[in-house]
Amino acid sequence: MTVSRTICLGFLAVIAVGTLLLMLPFSTSSGMWNDPIVALFTSTSAVCVTGHIVVDTGTYFSIWGQGLILALVQIGGLGYMSATTFLFLVLGRRFNLRDKIALQQALDRTSMQGSAQVIRSIVATSLIFEISGIFLLLLVFAPEYGLDRGLWLATFHSVSAWNNAGFSLFPDNLIGYQSSLLLNLVIPGLIIFGSIGYEVIFELYLWLRDRWLRKPAHIVFSLNFKVATTTTLILLGLGTVTIFLAELSNPKTLGTMNLGRQLMAAWFQAVTPRTAGFNTIDIGAMTTTTLFMTIGLMFVGGSPGGTAGGIKTTTLRVLTSSTNAILRGKEEVLLYERQIPISLILKAVGVLIGSVATVIIATTLISLTDPALDFIQVLFEVVSGFATVGLSTGITAGLSVPAKLALIATMYVGRVGVLLLMGALLGDPRPSAVHYPEENMFVG
C-alpha cells in the first residue's frame, strides 16, 4: 500500500460512503430511495469538487441531502489526506514518517517539516475565507429570502465557491444575480483565492504582516508565488477581454445588457473556469469562440496546493518557458532568473500528455455512446469534468448511463491527478543502476 494508492483509495472510499448516504430516503426531497447512478454521480462530483449535476440540487435533494453534499465538497476541497490528518490532530494522534510523506505528496510540498502546522493553517485559512464569504453573501440573500433561508444559501454558496465546486441551490445557477455587484465580487474572490494555492496565500499573509509591522527585512517571494500570481492575472485578463468581445453582440448572453453588466458577466465567466463552475449567463447559448476559449481556461485550471483542478498554472508556465528556451536556442529553462530543474520539466510534460490522453479517451467514449451530441458540447463537458469545473452546455442530465460513468471516471482522474493515479497503478519507481548511451533523433 503505497502513498499514492492510499490517497486514490481514500477518495474512492469517501465517494462510496457519499453514494450510499445520498441513496437513502432522507437525502431526497421526495423521501424516496435515490437512483444509484444519480447518487454516484453527485457524490463523485462533490468529492471531486466539480459541480456537474444530473438533477437540480436545490429541489431534488432535501436539506439533509444538501448538507451532505456540502460536507463532501468540504472534504474534497481539503483533500483526503488533509481532511484525515486534521481529524487525527483533533483526536490527538501523533504523526509517523509515513503520514508526513503522504502529506508531502498530497500537498506537493518540497519538505516534510511542519506538516501538522501546515494542516492547521490550511483549515484555519479555509474557515476564515468561508465565514467571511457567508457574512458578505448574507447581505445578498437575506433581504430576499429572510435570515434563516438566506443564511443557508450564503453558507452553501460560500463553501462551494471557496472549494471551487460550483454547486448552486438555484435552478439557473447564479444567472438571477448577474446584476448584483456584491455577489460578482465575493464569489469570484473566493474562487480565485481558493484556486491559487495555500502556499501563495501564506506568503501573501507574511508579506502583508511584515509591511504592517514595518519590518526592515521583507520576505522574498518564491518562484511558485510569482508564477502562480502572474499567470492567474494574465489568464483572468485575457479571459475577460475575449469573452466580452466574443459575446458582445450575442443577444442570448451579453447583447441585451448595459456596459456595466456586460463587464461584470464577462469577468465572472472568466473567473469560473478556474474550476469553479458557477455561471451568470447561459453557457449553452455562448458562441463557439467563447466555448473554445473557456475550454482552454478550464484545461489550465488553478494553481497547485489549492482546491482547483486542471493541469495548473505552473505546468503551463514551465511548458511555455521550455518552448521559449528551445526557440531561442538555449539549453536552460529560466523563470524569473531561476533555472527550472529537468525533473520538473519532465513532470510538466507527463502531466500534459496524461491530461490530453484522458480528455481524448473520455471524449471518444462519450461520442460513441451519445453520437447525437455536438463535438464541441462533448469536448466542453469532458474538459469541464476532468478539470473539476462543472460548467456545462446543458447536456449532463441527458447523457446515457455509459456516458455518465465515463464522466464520473474523468472527474475522479482529474481530482486525484494523472501522475498520482499512474503511480498508484504502477507502484513506486525502483532505482536502476543501468545507464544507456545517448543517441540523437529527429524531433519536430
Automatic annotation (TrEMBL):
Alphabetized GO MF terms: potassium:chloride symporter activity
Key words of the record: Cell membrane, Ion transport, Membrane, Potassium, Potassium transport, Transmembrane, Transmembrane helix, Transport
Membrane topology: Multi-pass membrane protein
Location, primary (coarse class): membrane
Transmembrane segments: 6-25, 67-91, 118-142, 181-206, 227-246, 344-366, 378-399, 405-426
S-adenosyl-L-methionine listed as a keyword: no
Record-given protein name: KtrAB potassium uptake system, integral membrane component KtrB
